## 1
Amino acid sequence: MYDFCIIGAGVIGCAVARELTRYKTSVVVVEAREDVCTGASGANSAVIHAGYDPLPGTLKAKYNVLGAKMFPTYAAALGVPFVRTGSLLLAFGDNGRDALRKLLERGERNGVKNLRVIKREDALAIEPRVSPDLTAALYAADAGITNPFEFTFALKENSEKNGARYEFGFETASVENLNGSTTLISADGRKVTAARVVNCAGEGAGPVARILGDLIYLKHRLGEYILFDKPSAVSMPIFGTPDENGKGVLVSPAVSGKFFIGPTSVVSDRIKPYFRNSAVKELFGSAEKLVPGLENAPRLTKYAGMRTACADGDFYIGKGRRENVWHIIGVDSPGLTAAPAIASAFARSFGLEREPAFDPVRRAIVRLNGKSASEKRALISRDPRYGNIICRCECVSEAEIIEAVKRGARTIDGVKKRLSAGMGKCQGSGCDDKIAAVLARELGKSIDAIDRNVRGSGLYSGENL
Ligand SMILES: Cc1cc2nc3c(=O)[nH]c(=O)nc-3n(C[C@H](O)[C@H](O)[C@H](O)COP(=O)(O)OP(=O)(O)OC[C@H]3O[C@@H](n4cnc5c(N)ncnc54)[C@H](O)[C@@H]3O)c2cc1C
């Protein structure tokens, strides 16, 4: 029996697992899919928000500001990129100026530092490609961007190093023995027993709450994006003024040097993300107001994520009706930013004894891309498989893919998210089959058994044509 069982291996579940391993306790994470980071944590804007947007007094405001402060040190220990780009929120006309003043005041009440309203000329000097029609801007110097995939993988790897266990393909379907300990039963009949259960199931948190004896209403909002190739049109996230639907479409660089526009905000009764045909027009319509001239930028792909929120719009972090059940749910934006702070406070709340052997450090996979010619030669002489380039667009070698498999990649998307393989110009058409072949060999499986992402989505056997 484990002390804690966390349901869901998104950024919240993995961060909670990692923070709990700082203490003398045992932790298991059960995840419905075959890998971590397959839900909202793998399809978001990757912005570490400064914290001027959430309403003062909410959990969102508290954990956004705390999480943003923690993020740089946290990411450094985990070998995850964090770039303090700053962010700009553009105002147009007099109404826009009023909105900026309100957001500045809100940010100050939330405790955000280094936040100021700047003049049109100063905004254009910082970011020359923004629309010259702006009247003023809110500059948040402490905002930044990260790689949300790598952050979630790093949390999982570091929590595993410190003793946490992960059970994949475990779709929590029912429970037994709700008094004392709880036994979770997966859809395929596996069982995991723990003294305490924590629902971090993201988009699936409503059904999981019901299984655990609680009725929690959650709403879903689709967010669609378009990704463009390098070089980025902007050096920091550019926002318009928020409205009742949220922060609106932004134009933002990614840590890879590419950039994107999005997300849309569409209330949805489906919980899995999808991309609407009309979204392209909507996205360009909104993004062009912030940064004109994007229509001709080289597009790479479209993607989408699903936000899951509580009816009151705030995060829900608290106990269920039954003993020893907790929920950390309705964690929509800024949940990525807030994850370190939420997890740290949650783990601390149990008053457990510290684990002196806890090691906070996780080393990133050694990457060929970006290395000098002599560094590349040194890597290849150490392991010739660094010389076998599998993904030409993003310069990913066989050696890196083997390392990704050792760290838990089981699907083509698992490799892609860990290494950016297949995320370049050809979008995988030149390397998917080679990645599948390495996965099959390393995992001792037939290539037909290698899935793109979910079970049954194989390149050669799934319903994918
Ligand atoms: C469009 C969009 C843009 C965003 N932009 C930002 C941003 O720029 N900055 C920011 O800070 N935040 C942002 N966010 C918010 C952030 O992405 C989320 O807050 C965060 O990813 C939520 O993580 P999670 O772990 O709660 O959920 P998820 O990542 O969805 O993880 C939940 C996991 O639970 C699993 N699960 C579900 N049901 C079961 C079950 N029955 N049994 C076992 N496992 C189950 C799922 O498979 C999934 O892996 C954005 C979100 C979206 C959608």
## 2
Amino acid sequence: MNKLRAFLFVLVTLLPALCWTAPLEVRRDIHFPNLPGYQVMACDFHMHTVFSDGTVWPTIRVNEAWRQGLHAIAVTDHIEYQPHKADVPTNHGRSHTLAESAAKSHNLILIKGAEITPDTPPGHFNAVFLSDVKPLDTPEFLRAIEQANQQGAFVFWNHHAWKGEEKGRWLDVHQTMYDKKWFQGMEVANGDEYYPTAHQWCLEKKLTMLGNSDIHEPDLRKESASEDHRTMTLVFVKERTPAGIKEALLAGRTIVWFKDQLMGREELLRPFFNACIEGREPNVRSKSAVVVEVRNNCQADICLEPAGPPPADQLPPRPIVLPANSTVLLRIPVTDPAKPVAPKYTAKNFLVGPGKCLSVTLKIPGQPLPGKKSGK
Ligand SMILES: [Zn+2]
Ligand SMILES: [Zn+2]
């Protein structure tokens, strides 16, 4: 009987403690490398809730993003398009307000935004880092864009070819906005769609490249895996704050993660690739090959294909897939194992422009064979 009493005592006293320590939710982190002076943040600047044409309550957007490892989001309900207004009355900015406490408890940066939704053309534009959404509710499109800029917002052109390239053309109205610096970026990818023309325009016109989910339905993913993740923007910030994100967006320090592709300006994508790949000292050097570990430090698989003819004294390199957050063991054929090996590849899923992949070199250090003395 005493034993039973003791058991019940332990149960009653420990059970609440066990409940307190059980995790409320689980987050699967996103791993991409930082760059010297910059930290990487995974961001999604385009999504909807029941306060426009989405089907979820605003707090759900926070839960989804946190669970999938994102660091910052903007809830951007349509200003003009409010199909649920009989049940959820128009209340601009309310979705942001409702999501704020959830964002705080999840340590997720929540940026106030809205989608300015006139007809196409001129198309839809997102304004993020707004202070007040209401003044943007005007039938005059350019007035809404001007108002967003007066609030210090970052404005970008969404899914420009959503209704076809012919309707997503660069028109006088876009040129007017561009000349006034009233929009600073474009979506190169939106959800499952990629826009090569927007990609090219971003390069030519120095606009910031963005990739966003534009989710309307619940996003049921538990993680952001290489083979299945929402479209997002990797932002390289000096500081992990809303102001830090805005500064990085204005400076164009972004890489778009869309399906199996990473897209960005070469000056950013090249150091990013070099930070993702870690080539190590070979484990074995034989007369005909070196065996070496190569690590992929990023969340995306990296696909390398041989580029051009190999150096005269080396045999052709082979195609390689480096799985996300993994180390592979490679056997690289050589004719002189003491020499450094530098096979050249094309990183097939690192795009520096539409259809243009990043050229890279794997660098495997050389070393004299045991017993062989250096000439110096
Ligand atoms: Zn839209
Ligand atoms: Zn949208």
